From TrEMBL, chain A:
Cellular localization per UniProt: Cell membrane
Cross-referenced Pfam families: BPD_transp_2 (PF02653)
GN (gene name): livM
Protein name per Swiss-Prot or TrEMBL: Branched-chain amino acid ABC transporter permease
Keyword set includes Membrane: yes
Alphabetized UniProt keyword annotations: Cell membrane, Membrane, Transmembrane, Transmembrane helix
The organism of origin for this protein: Dactylosporangium siamense
From TrEMBL, chain B:
Organism in which the protein naturally occurs: Dactylosporangium siamense
GO biological process: amino acid transport
Major subcellular site: membrane
Transmembrane segments: 12-29, 41-69, 89-108, 141-161, 181-209, 216-239, 259-281
Domain of life where this protein originates: Bacteria
Entry GO MF terms: transmembrane transporter activity
Gene Ontology CC terms: plasma membrane
Name of the protein described by the UniProt record: Branched-chain amino acid ABC transporter permease
Family to which the UniProt record says this protein belongs: Belongs to the binding-protein-dependent transport system permease family. LivHM subfamily.
Its membrane topology: Multi-pass membrane protein
Alphabetically ordered keywords of this record: Amino-acid transport, Cell membrane, Membrane, Transmembrane, Transmembrane helix, Transport
A Pfam family annotated for this UniProt entry: BPD_transp_2
Tagged with keyword Cell membrane: yes
Length: 366, 295
């Protein structure tokens, strides 16, 4: 038995999340490294990795609606913004220039941000159930522009463009996560919080995907008419997809700027939506681990590119000269999207699958 | 009343730029069933090329040369990045064009640099005075005339030439067209080239009276609500949608002062608001064909 990893003798084995020993070991090691990371790397990098964890939550959300349910959404930035401002308003300082209610408990403002964003998603869903394909993509793009206008103008909530406001300062059951203490620094606390949230979000998404709802999503993605004929209620499941996806986006938006400590309404533009699309396409659409991989790659990309000028001296690190590292970064977004879609449509996840299958059969190629 | 007439005239002027952009989108959509998000980049590329060519060639020749060059660029992009994707889901191709847009736009922005680049047009901000004290800017008249000429040329091309017929056939049914000896690949290439050239002209006219800057691509995005409004596969729809959106936008810009709670730049987002309203009533736009699904 032990030497036949694909032999299943019960339904429980068939349905298990981690169905092989190697998966269990790999996930265990990953988690152990993740938990140990605060003591292994410096705080600045840790903050970036924490940001990548939050971004991954948002990418998992977009993956639910676009990767699993096949409804193309360019409006993710809009839902991120709703989450970010809901959380900032609930947790904000009541005496500050911008709206704030002073409830700093993360167990309150994080779900609230998710729920408000999910409500917005459910409100948008009727449009989505009427439209298909590229019409839907452009309508969701319209959401980003209209939402962007609203948050730019509503300066009592958002601080206004160029000024911005503070993100929520998290407190967990009275324990302040936003300042360092004798045991952990601020960045270490925030990183651990975000890691835990990412694990919860990923598990929830994975379980959703293999439930009745998830199978309905996949059916709609693959052929919506066939799904409808089989008895999948299209309107209902598209609404659920938008709602859940926006919930994830709202939670991610609420946490996205906690590490940096400041955010500006102009951040929530089309480019942000495109970045999230890039994450799930580069990582691998329709897989949770792909979304996480893509989010980490895209978030860490600027940091990696800042190292490029030391290897290629003709690329400058100053934004006034051309070609510079910022231009290279933006070009790479575009080129990565194109290259992955043409050569490896299943993304990083697909590369991993191919590698795995190669070594599984090694030294035989078939 | 004077304000009203002037803003309608301005709206028709800017609307004709939207119409040109929209036509590019619709031509590509009809040929390949894909919305090309690369159009903003081509528009910017065209306008920047004109700023470089206007010195040696003069405005009109420079514009023509830039249109041809941008068409060539679009042709190359189609061959490199879009042709390998035939048979893949349209969404995938649309996202590829988004990637192209990002990459091309960075290169073009680097070509703009930090200087103020102007297209060197003969109109600037000069105006003609009409009876009743109404002023109409010469550049808007030029935009409308250019658009009208281009639309007429496109009409003749699609209606009376063999190539135009081939393009119409390919957009109607690719396999049947192939069976009749139409090279569908050539149709794809030609539609991208045409759209690129139209975008270059539109970009140049959008920059007339101002300067070429990175933010010009936002104008091209306004063409998206335009084509959704008119219907993705309708050429007349793109023209009518463009004029309608341009007019609504200019009217809002004129009268937004009376609704201050909407915020200062509401006219920038009015195209999207109009699009939402129309789509709630007609999911396939005003003139788009309703999709019939066969199982």
């Amino acid at each position: 038995m032990r030497n036949r990893p694909l032999l299943r003798t019960s339904y429980n084995q068939e349905l298990a999340l981690l169905d092989t020993t190697s998966k269990k070991v790999a996930v265990g090691i990953l988690l152990a490294v993740g938990v140990a990371l605060p003591w292994l790397v410096e705080d600045q990098l840790l903050q970036l990795i924490g940001l990548a964890c939050v971004t991954a939550i948002g990418a998992i959300g977009l993956n639910i609606v676009t990767g699993y349910a096949g409804q193309v959404s360019l409006g993710h930035a809009f839902f991120l913004a709703i989450g970010a401002y809901t959380a900032a308003a609930i947790a904000g300082d009541p005496d500050a220039r911008t709206i704030g209610f002073g409830v700093r408990e993360i167990l309150i403002w994080l779900p609230a941000a998710g729920v408000v964003a999910a409500l917005a998603g459910v409100l948008v869903a009727p449009l989505a159930t009427r439209l298909r394909g590229l019409y839907l993509a452009i309508v969701t793009l319209g959401l980003v522009f209209i939402g962007g206008h609203v948050i730019n103008e509503w300066s009592s909530l958002t601080g206004g463009p160029g000024i911005g406001r503070q993100p929520p300062a998290p407190t967990l059951l009275g324990y302040d996560l936003n300042t360092g203490d004798a045991f952990l620094t601020r960045d270490q606390k925030l990183y651990l919080l975000m890691l835990v949230l990412l694990v919860i979000a990923a598990l929830a998404a994975r379980n959703l995907a293999r439930s009745r709802v998830g199978r309905a999503f996949t059916a709609i993605r693959d052929r919506d008419i066939a799904a409808g004929v089989m008895g999948v209620n299209l309107a209902r499941y598209k609404t659920i997809a938008f709602g859940v996806s926006s919930f994830y986006a709202g939670c991610a938006g609420a946490l996205l700027y906690v590490g940096i400590g400041y955010f500006d309404p102009t951040t929530f533009n089309l480019l942000l939506s495109v970045q999230y699309i890039a994450m799930i396409l580069i990582g691998g659409a329709g897989t949770v681990s792909g979304a996480v991989l893509g989010a980490f790659l895209i978030t860490l990309l600027p940091r990696l590119i800042r190292e490029v000028p030391s290897f290629l001296p003709f690329i400058s690190n100053s934004p006034a000269e051309s070609p510079n590292a910022y231009q290279l970064e933006t070009v790479l977004y575009g080129v990565l999207i194109i290259v992955f879609l043409i050569f490896e449509p299943r993304g990083l996840f697909g590369i991993w699958i191919r590698l795995r299958n190669y070594w599984k059969a090694w030294p035989f190629s078939y | 009343m004077k304000d009203f007439v002037e803003s309608v005239l301005r709206g028709i002027g800017t609307g004709s730029v939207y119409a040109l952009l929209g036509l590019g989108f619709v031509i590509i959509y009809k040929a390949t069933r894909v919305i090309s998000f690369a159009q903003p980049a081509f528009m910017l590329a065209g306008a920047v090329l004109v700023t470089y060519l206007v010195g040696p060639l003069g405005f009109f020749l420079g514009l023509a040369a830039a249109a041809v060059l941008t068409g060539g660029l679009a042709l190359g992009v189609e061959r490199l990045a879009v042709r390998p994707m035939i048979g893949r889901p349209v969404f995938t191709v649309a996202i590829i064009t988004l990637g192209i847009d990002i990459a091309v736009r960075v290169v073009v922005n680097a070509a703009i640099g930090l200087d103020v680049r102007q297209v060197g047009d003969p109109w600037g901000l000069k105006v003609w005075k009409l009876p009743g004290g109404v002023q109409v800017e010469q550049r808007h008249v030029a935009m409308v005339l250019t658009t009208a000429v281009l639309i007429a040329l496109l009409f003749v091309f699609f209606r009376y030439t063999r190539t135009g017929l081939a393009m119409r056939a390919a957009s109607y049914d690719q396999e049947a067209a192939l069976a009749q000896g139409v090279s569908v690949g050539a149709v794809f290439a030609l539609s991208w080239a045409l759209a690129g050239a139209l975008a270059a002209v539109a970009g140049t006219f959008a920059a007339v009276g101002g300067s070429v800057s990175e933010s010009l691509w936002l104008i091209a995005l306004t063409a998206l609500p335009v084509i959704i409004l008119g219907g993705l596969d309708s050429l007349p729809g793109a023209v009518i949608g463009g004029l309608a959106v341009g007019t609504v936008q200019e009217l809002t810009a004129t009268y937004q002062g009376s609704l201050p709670w909407l915020g200062g730049n509401i006219s920038v987002v009015t195209p999207y608001v109009v699009m939402f309203l129309v789509l709630l009533v007609r999911p396939y736009g005003l003139f788009g064909t309703r999709e019939v699904e066969r199982v």
